[in-house]
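If it is no trouble, might I ask you for a protein's amino acid sequence along with its backbone structure tokens?
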Amino acid sequence: MIVFDKNKLENSVLIEEADSLKNAGFIGKEQLDFIKKELPTLNSHKNILVRIGFFLLGSFLYSSICSAVSLLAISGLDYYWEIFPFIFGIIGIIGSEFLAKKDYYNHGLDDAFILGTILTFGFAVTFITKLENVLPVSILVAIISLGMFVRYIHMLSVLVFYLAMTLSLGYSIFEYLEAGQAILPFFMMFFGAGTYFLCRKLTKDLAEPYYYNGILLIKSISLILFYSSGNYLIVREFSASLMGGYYEISPEIPFGFFFWAFTFIVPVLYLVYSLKGKDRIMLWISFLAIAFSFYSFRFYNSVLPIEVALTLSGLIMFAVSFFFIRKLRTKESGLTFKTDRISNSNTFLNTEALVIASAFGMKPEVKPSESPMEFGGGGFSGGGSEGNF
């Protein structure tokens, strides 16, 4: 199913891990250059600005091809203009295949054609349904984006897939169930939690490492979805917007105490579990969730003036940070304040990067000096036991 050469794809993964090892000081620049020279890889860009530039260039190329095709065919298709988005989508698939065969991977040009394919097929179904139903559009976008991720290992595609899938399920629950609005938050909670545990199992049993980052992205988004589905502010304001008929203050929601408890308990659980499991992404999500929880409380209950609240919160954060820095700065293992030599926690997912040196017969950078004293010469059990020097 994957269009790329798997050897080059695996080599690209190994090069990324070798870069992390070099930045951490485990290997030197000469070893890294030798690895890059010996391992053929795909044509990609890590610099985000360069990738954005090639994306803009690819978007211009894609739109130019679509414009040329539409000009050539518009004279004979005056009454069937709805099929043009499908034609543009097919052009995007052909362009994505062509660039993939030329080993373009996370380059920028391929991003334009892959995202353009998803967008044009979504517009095609939108024109056919005349915006009467969102469900067919979201389902088609989810299917196409999943196929793009599986075939081209495109990170943004897997993000579009999960968002479209969430929209499809939420819209189905709300529109086609009698009590859909009441159970929608709880359904989204179960969906987010189920997605998280499924992705965690997949990452443990993953045989192909190049899918790891995509699954990790969905796993992280599922944590945000789970918290957002039970946040009091989001549930109350979203429910009020669906009902309509209010201007300043949204009406109270049922089970308000449950959603308030959920708003403050879940971020704390995220924080504790992230520290216990050494999950850096969950740790950052827990910080954002805690901040948004306090914002949600203040949105409905202004206990202190804004300047006083900001000052007190800053002092509390400073005191907590100072306390933990004092406690952790001398620790050498576990939870510590020491600088992480390897910023990417996935560096040792594949042990091949650690044995490249031995596989290619690479010599160490520093050769120990030979000792001036020569040993040996003994004919019996001990050195020098023959009686001569």
In short: The chain has 14 helices and no strands. The CA atoms of residues 41 and 369 lie 37 Å apart. The radius of gyration is 29 Å. Residues 345-375, 379-385 have pLDDT under 50 and may be disordered.
